[in-house]
């Protein structure tokens, strides 16, 4: 996330929302989803990407998808 949004890693907390992170807009969100999918070899459904309200929720969703073996 820090690399995608070009911010210090320590500035991203589990309770952060998109408005809290400079550079998190619709385009960078799409880039983030692609990077996460590639990094973990998974497919993130659009509903998951849209419904995760916080960084923590997104992290948990990605972990659950990866654990379930939802491969891209």
UniProtKB/TrEMBL annotation:
It comes from Methylobacterium platani JCM 14648. Gene3D superfamilies: ACP-like. Residues 1-66 form the Carrier domain. This is Carrier domain-containing protein. Coiled coil: none annotated. The lineage of its organism: Bacteria, Pseudomonadati, Pseudomonadota, Alphaproteobacteria, Hyphomicrobiales.
């Amino acid at each position: 996330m820090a690399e995608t949004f070009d911010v210090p890693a320590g500035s991203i907390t589990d309770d952060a929302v998109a408005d809290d992170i400079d550079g998190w807009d619709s385009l960078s969100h799409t880039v983030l989803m692609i990077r996460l999918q590639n990094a973990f070899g998974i497919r993130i459904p659009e509903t998951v990407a849209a419904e995760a309200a916080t960084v923590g929720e997104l992290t948990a969703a990605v972990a659950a998808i990866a654990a379930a073996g939802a491969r891209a």
